[in-house]
Amino acid sequence: MSSETPNQEENESTGASLAKDVAGGAKSAPEDSAGAANPKVDGRELIRFDRVTKRFGDNVVLDDLEFRVDSGKHVTLIGPSGSGKTTILRLLMTLLKPDEGTITVGGEYLTHEEKNGKLVPAGEKHIREVRKNIGMVFQQFNLFPNMKVLRNITEAPVNVLGLSKEEADTRARDLLELVGLTEHMDKYPSQLSGGQQQRVAIARALAMRPQVLLLDEVTSALDPELVAGVLDVLRDIAHTTDITMLCVTHEMSFARDISDDVLMFNEGKVIESGSPDKMFNDPDHPRTREFLGAVL
Amino acid sequence: MNWDWGVVSDFMPLFWDGVIVTVQALVFGSLIAFALGLVWAIAQRSERKLVRWPVTVLTEFIRNTPLLVQLFFLFYVVPEWGPSMSPLMTGIIGLGLHYSTYTAEVYRAGIDGVPEGQWEAATALSLPKVRTWTAVILPQAIRRVIPALGNYVVAMLKDSPMIAVIGAYEMLGEASAFSNATFTIEAYTVVGIAFILIAYPASLLLRVLERRLVK
């Protein structure tokens, strides 16, 4: 773990067990977290991209993309910059809309809804409902600078999920313990280091108990000595919860640690996918070999 | 020039009447300008053309016509088919409406200055629109623009004598009436000093605010 806070070591020993409690159910007992509002069946398809195309002007970023992610899996997207990895996360978070094709999350269309048997662009309400199952951590943290750390985490649970202030506070405190920042909860984000801010952002995303956590180059904006602390927190979460993760990263050793599947992107398409072992040690596609040769 | 302190003391009761009108016009005019300006700024970011478009036309129209004309219009034309209001009330609404088109631009700059990532984070957390505005965007935007808003309060103070033309006798109106009746000039000097005594400390205060709020 990083050395940025004095309570890091203490956190290391308790982090794993805490993650089970706070981040939405343990691997061994997925039925605990299953509920009417949050249906979750292990091994079932959770995310599907169906012939998704996304263009920016003339630039085709995603080209007729097909892929699926099963519930509880940790999938890492790798590939050269501009290959469309981040666009996938942003489409899932509804920060972008696909030009063609459909995206489903948990069997529900994300950007479309069925009306009288026809598929039409989804209304705000429908998008909000499906999106609640998805959380995202950004490269630039994007914490709310006008709110203290605790309120950053409780804001959405109170105003979106309808939790009481006390319930949300309890949830936030548990999460802050998980990310090792309990004593910073009354500070403003600007008073924290980048690594600490990113750990708050992780806690903020988890406070919504999403089924899917999207990680968009979460360590790219950090000073090198702060990267380990953030990755350790994410490892805890990956190893002890059944949350589905979609991760865009340049930290290949981290990708190897947490991934069930690695998807290699090139020019808007998945050109190869497989287990981290296979992908990092013996990739088939020459472009994958070339890319990994350059970054490893 | 003969300066007569006796004239000054004769004027003082009227002066204080004028000060009360000036302060009322300034305080309520500012409140209207702050509130309406925010409404314009948010409406101009609406996804609906039917909201955006009329607001743009209205604010451009008001900003590009003289305050004096607007005051006459509100006082003499509007009562023909609408409510008829006291001179002070008309003056307050006129000043507030006119300056709301300027504060709208100030808010717009403040809102544009909030990083895109803040909107994205609010979307990622599924915060409702109203909550995104009130809890995330506006607190950050407004903090940044308070000094600029304050500048318009000072500008409004300096424009406030215009409401005398429709009979709302603020400081200058009182001075003018008094001086014409008594063939003296001291009252104008008193009012001039009063303006600087209000405006200069106000702009100093704004500079302090700017240093503390805009980082």
Automatic annotation (TrEMBL), chain B:
SUPFAM superfamilies assigned to the protein according to its UniProt record, in alphabetical order: MetI-like
Family per similarity comment: Belongs to the binding-protein-dependent transport system permease family.
Primary subcellular site in the record, as a coarse category: membrane
Name of the protein: Ectoine/hydroxyectoine ABC transporter permease subunit EhuD
Entries under NCBIfam families matching the protein: ectoine_ehuD, HEQRo_perm_3TM
GO cellular component: ATP-binding cassette (ABC) transporter complex
Domain ABC transmembrane type-1: 15-206
Keywords: Amino-acid transport, Cell membrane, Membrane, Transmembrane, Transmembrane helix, Transport
Topology relative to the membrane: Multi-pass membrane protein
PROSITE patterns, per the entry: ABC_TM1
Cellular compartments annotated: Cell membrane
InterPro entries referenced in this protein's UniProt entry, alphabetically: AA_ABC_transptr_permease_3TM, ArtM/GltK/GlnP/TcyL/YhdX-like, Ectoine_EhuD, MetI-like, MetI-like_sf
Gene Ontology BP terms: amino acid transport
Organism: Streptomyces tardus
Protein's UniProt keywords contain Transmembrane helix: yes
Transmembrane segments: 20-43, 187-209
Domain of life the protein comes from: Bacteria
Alphabetized GO MF terms: transmembrane transporter activity
